[in-house]
Specification:
The radius of gyration is 32 Å and the shape is flat. It has 2 domains: 24-57; 67-146, no CATH class. The protein contains 5 helices and no strands. The termini are far apart. Helix content is 64%, strand content 0%. It has helices spanning 24-39, 43-57, 67-90, 97-121, 124-138. It is mostly helical.
Length: 148
Amino acid sequence: MKRTGRPPKYPHGRKHIKVYYDKSDEIYMKLLDMIAQREGMTRSDLVLHIIKEYVQYHLGGNPEILLPEFKKDVNGLEAELVKEEIRMLLNRRVVDDFTRTLFIKDAMKVIPEARKALARTNDPELRDLLRKLLEKVRGGPLKQAKLG
């Protein structure tokens, strides 16, 4: 006989969760007790001391490399890559409508990246290369106000 009405709560049977006891907690507690005893502190004081040292050590960022320095390096690298792409585009020969269409298509991919890199680094060489690329795309000289 088929059951009607509300579907069963567990159509595929109950799911059992197995909990395994982790002995590493005991080991950490024993280790903390040994260190605290050697230092003449309680376990709580030792943990508080460790946290204070960690915060003081990492207050200015990661001691190996600070984030602003890393960001500056990444922005400089990005600008160098964009400059190289622009140089390659500027050296490309445009002889007919087909090659001009391909050139413009490739240039339109690089221009937004170049503008972002220029905004981040304010690199004068990148500014000049971007101006030359835009002039080549447009087919004539640009006004100063267009690049910003």
